[in-house]
């Protein structure tokens, strides 16, 4: 029988745990794990590694604007009572505050109830080593809703180094603060001295759950203490601050005062009720060094008032007014006092803002209004209108300036745009001839606070006198600048003794603060004219000037350029280095003869070498191949040298030479000068044997002074055949005059003229002068005359009286009354009456700019006397008549009427001649006629002549128009 294995018994089935049991077991296991972790963490925190971890999370953290915190030596249980051996606050320059042995005791379990409870914070010593570098921080959101209770905080020794307040000071601080969840709380702080200045502070505030509020503050300190240093009190004055507040959180009043010694410098009051709140502050800024800049710009006292309507905390209208001697500033807006956010644009307005105080050296009053919008953190945009009245600045001013303007700050960029400013009666004081005018201006630019760069995108100024445009940039940090633009002068007469207009391109650059300012300009004149003959001849109609110049230490130096005119051509090449060294040369010439009205300068070449530096340039000037003629003297081969060092002092020599026929002309001397002073010393000049010596000629503070003597023969000079001159004098001419000059001319001989003696004497004192002269000799007829005139000066104008007395060919001649005369830059006039040749001559002449007038009348003037003077056959008879003339800007009119009666050669008595002469000037045509009879003849004549009419008395015969005339003469010849 075969054995077989019994079959295997089936395995019993595993019983599954209920779901609720598995969940329960999981929770138990997790709880044991959490408990284990918590227990582990709790013991780990108190270990060295746990405390090191906490230190690593705190060390190096930023504490807002105060820098970074560094800690060392954390000991004890951080969750109950711990101590830190060393705490340091560090800014960019290193450690500025160090605290040692700090201990904190707190209850962490209360955090679960929303309350941070700190029983005690104690720091043994705190050393403030210096002032920190505080940095601005972005605005943060509101803090967590958590209660705070700090029962006690104390610093056993708060130490300030001498670098902070000037002396070694130690203080003790004690205080506490609590803000409970039931809305009650307190705050207190006490400061008392340990060693050093006796500064003390006692500040307490308490509030209850029902809203009652009380608070007091008393802070006092000596002149050399901590508090005086913090508030920047005046030297040697103690500080006292007292404040109080009472009421409820919803309705309270409060006030405070700040005193320096026995003087109150600030008072504050604040009030709040259910519907509004107000604040006022009165500050004597002039007595508070902290506010020196405010006092300088705003005035001695400043008052601030504020008002807010609180019926709607989320949209509360708020207004602030600042009143000071410099003007009034008003701000108004709406504020959400729950979030302290501005909900509407700020309305900003100023009234009578005094620029003399706010922005000297400008003067004037400014009114402004506009909207100020705050954008993000620290950015804004202000758009409004500005009106400035009676504006003045050192170089000019305006009656009124009005403009819309936008000023904005976006990040680190402040921009401005004034697109349409109107300037009324704008003026430039340096340009006396530039009449005040209206200008339109526009300016747009920005300032980058990070790069400290000012960018001017466009600036224009337009008006009747001309216009100017500019653009460029300026670096505040290193002084680099680069500007360029155009300029147009519509009326050159406004800025120079020229007429016409001019256009130019210009640029101004500077490589750095200590580098010179470099200027380039290219100017072209158009239709240029000048009332100064020499300037007109030199400039011509279209002069052009190109130059490159340097301004260094306030001195303007041309380093290169060209000047091209009708009568002059000059070219300058060279360079002014950044260190001020100069190496330049100017070469030019007069290209035409200059007619100076009685004197002329011929063509002349000149060369100037300029070396040295901008503070003291050295000039070597050479003149050659020139000519001069005037007063009958012609000097040829005119040339010479001038060598001088310029700068704060001027020193040099000059030598001029030439020839007058066979007679040499020489002049030499020394040049000296300083600030506002220029002198020619030891001037010696000679023309042949005629010599002039002037030990000193000076120009100082607007006064010209000189002493001189001259003597020598005049033969061969100005057509004289014989004669001598002797003269000497002293003079000083400025706001007042002092003149004493005497001299004589003796034995003068020239063709037909012989003057035996001419004496003259000029005296002046103050603003009154007298000139007397006598002459005796023969000028076609024997003469013996005495002349005298007095003159009174009023700035640039002169007026006076003149008399004449004597005989001509033994016939008396004299003024019937003193002649009246006046002279000014804009014109002159003469009113004289002479008794001469048994008749009278009455003349009234006036000249002003382009206008002139004359009225000359003769009455019974003897023809016999006139014929004797003229050395012709004597004629009896007399002449009576009148001449009138007016010229107004080139439109001239004139009339002549002369009557000659009883004219006969001496010895003839029958059939005398009578003659009537008539003339008329209209436009530029002069028509004349004459009729007469006698001695058996009848005369009828007429003529027509075209004239050239200039300014004033400048009238001449046209060289291109022939004289037209007709003559009828009938009678008998016996």
Describe this structure in words.
The protein has 974 residues and is mainly β. The chain has a domain at 786-974. 7% of the residues lie in helices and 66% in strands. It has eight helices and 59 strands. The chain has a 59-stranded mixed sheet that branches. A hairpin with a 2-residue loop joins strand 56 and strand 57 (937-949). The longest helix has 27 residues, at 19-45. The termini are far apart.
Q: Can you give the helix content as a percent range?
A: under 10%
**DSSP helical segment count:** 8
How far from one another are the termini?
A: 219 Å
Largest sheet: 59 strands, mixed
How many beta-strand segments?
59
How much beta, percentage-wise?
over 45%
Task: Please state the average pLDDT score.
Answer: 83
User: Radius of gyration over alpha carbons?
Assistant: 50 Å
Secondary structural class = mainly beta
């Amino acid at each position: 029988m075969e054995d077989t294995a019994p079959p295997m018994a089936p395995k019993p089935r595993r019983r599954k745990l209920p779901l609720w049991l598995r969940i329960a077991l999981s929770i138990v296991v997790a709880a044991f794990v959490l408990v284990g972790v918590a227990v582990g963490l709790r013991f780990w925190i108190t270990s060295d590694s746990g405390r090191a971890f906490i230190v690593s999370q705190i060390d190096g953290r930023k504490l807002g604007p105060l820098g970074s915190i560094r800690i060392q030596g954390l000991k004890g249980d951080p969750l109950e009572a711990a101590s830190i051996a060393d705490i340091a606050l560090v800014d960019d320059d290193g450690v500025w505050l160090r605290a040692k042995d700090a201990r904190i005791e707190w209850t962490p379990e209360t955090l679960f109830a929303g309350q941070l409870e700190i029983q005690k914070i104690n720091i043994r010593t705190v050393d403030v080593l210096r002032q920190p570098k505080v940095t601005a921080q972005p605005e943060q959101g509101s803090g967590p809703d958590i209660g705070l209770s700090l029962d006690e905080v104390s610093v056993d020794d708060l130490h300030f180094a001498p670098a902070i307040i000037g002396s070694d000071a130690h203080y003790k601080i004690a205080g506490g603060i609590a803000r409970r969840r039931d809305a009650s709380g307190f705050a207190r702080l006490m400061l008392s001295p340990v060693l050093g200045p006796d500064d003390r502070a006692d500040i307490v505030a308490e509030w209850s759950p029902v809203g009652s509020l009380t608070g007091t503050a008393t802070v006092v300190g000596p002149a050399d203490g901590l508090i005086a240093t913090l508030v920047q009190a005046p030297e040697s004055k103690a500080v006292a601050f007292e404040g109080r507040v009472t009421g409820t959180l919803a309705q309270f009043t409060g006030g405070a005062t700040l005193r320096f010694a026995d003087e109150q410098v600030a008072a504050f009051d604040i009030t709040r009720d259910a519907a509004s709140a107000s604040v006022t502050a009165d500050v004597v800024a002039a007595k508070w060094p902290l506010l020196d800049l405010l006092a300088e710009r705003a005035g001695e006292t400043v008052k601030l008032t504020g008002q807010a309507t609180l019926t709607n905390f989320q949209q509360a209208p708020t207004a602030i007014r600042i009143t000071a001697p410099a003007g009034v500033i008003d701000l108004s807006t709406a504020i959400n006092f729950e979030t302290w956010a501005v909900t509407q644009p700020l309305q900003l307005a100023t009234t009578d803002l005094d620029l003399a105080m706010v922005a000297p050296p400008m003067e004037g009053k400014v009114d402004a209004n506009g909207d100020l919008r705050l954008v993000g953190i620290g950015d804004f945009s202000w758009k409004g209108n500005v009106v400035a009245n009676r504006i003045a600045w050192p170089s000019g001013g305006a009656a009124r300036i009005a403009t819309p303007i936008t000023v904005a700050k976006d990040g680190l960029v402040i921009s401005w745009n004034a697109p349409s400013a109107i300037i009324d009666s704008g003026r430039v004081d340096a340009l006396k001839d530039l009449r005040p005018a209206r200008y339109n201006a526009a300016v747009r630019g920005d300032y980058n606070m990070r790069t400290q760069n000012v960018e001017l995108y466009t600036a224009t100024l337009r008006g009747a006198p001309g216009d100017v445009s500019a653009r460029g940039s300026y670096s505040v940090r290193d002084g680099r600048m680069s500007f360029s633009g155009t300029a147009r002068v519509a009326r050159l007469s406004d800025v120079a003794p020229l007429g016409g207009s001019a256009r130019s391109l210009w640029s101004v650059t500077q490589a750095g603060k200590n580098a010179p300012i470099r200027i380039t300009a290219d100017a072209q004149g158009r239709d240029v004219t000048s009332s100064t003959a020499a300037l007109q001849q030199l400039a011509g109609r279209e002069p052009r000037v190109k130059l490159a110049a340097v301004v260094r230490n306030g001195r303007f130096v041309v380093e290169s350029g060209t000047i091209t005119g009708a009568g002059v051509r000059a070219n300058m090449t060279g360079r002014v280095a950044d260190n001020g060294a100069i190496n330049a040369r100017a070469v030019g010439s007069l290209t035409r003869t200059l007619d100076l009205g009685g004197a002329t300068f011929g063509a002349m070449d000149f060369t100037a070498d300029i070396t040295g530096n901008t503070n003291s340039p050295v000039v070597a000037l050479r003149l050659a191949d020139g000519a001069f003629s005037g007063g009958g003297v012609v000097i040829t081969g005119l040339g010479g040298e001038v060598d001088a060092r310029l700068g704060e002092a001027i020193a040099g020599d000059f030598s001029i030479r030439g020839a007058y026929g066979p007679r040499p002309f020489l002049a030499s001397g020394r040049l000296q000068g300083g600030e506002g002073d220029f002198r020619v010393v030891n001037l010696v000049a000679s023309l042949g044997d005629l010599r002039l010596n002037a030990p000193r000629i000076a120009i100082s503070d607007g006064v010209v002074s000189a002493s001189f003597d001259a003597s020598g023969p005049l033969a061969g000079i100005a057509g004289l055949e014989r004669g001598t001159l002797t003269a000497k004098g002293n003079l000083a001419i400025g706001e007042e005059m002092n003149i004493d000059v005497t001299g004589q001319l003796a034995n003068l001989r020239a063709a037909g003229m012989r003057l035996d003696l001419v004496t003259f004497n000029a005296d002046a004192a103050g603003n009154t002068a007298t000139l007397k002269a006598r002459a005796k000799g023969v000028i076609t007829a024997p003469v013996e005359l005495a002349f005298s005139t007095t003159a009174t000066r009023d700035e640039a104008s002169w007026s006076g009286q003149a008399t004449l007395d004597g005989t001509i060919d033994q016939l008396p001649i004299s003024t019937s009354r003193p002649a009246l005369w006046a002279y000014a830059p804009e014109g002159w006039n003469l009113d004289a009456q002479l008794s001469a040749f048994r008749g009278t001559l009455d003349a009234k002449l006036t000249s002003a700019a382009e206008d002139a007038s004359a009225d000359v009348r003769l009455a019974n003037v003897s023809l016999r006397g006139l014929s004797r003077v003229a050395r012709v056959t004597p004629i009896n008879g007399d002449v009576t008549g009148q001449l009138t003339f007016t010229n107004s800007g080139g439109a001239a009119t004139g009339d002549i009427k002369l009557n000659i009666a009883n004219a006969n050669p001496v010895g003839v008595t029958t059939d005398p001649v009578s003659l009537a002469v008539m003339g008329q000037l209209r436009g530029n045509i002069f028509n004349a006629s004459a009729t007469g009879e006698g001695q058996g003849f009848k005369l009828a004549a007429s003529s027509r002549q075209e004239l050239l009419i200039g300014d004033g008395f400048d009238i001449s015969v046209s060289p291109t128009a022939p004289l037209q005339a007709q003559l009828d003469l009938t009678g008998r010849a016996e």
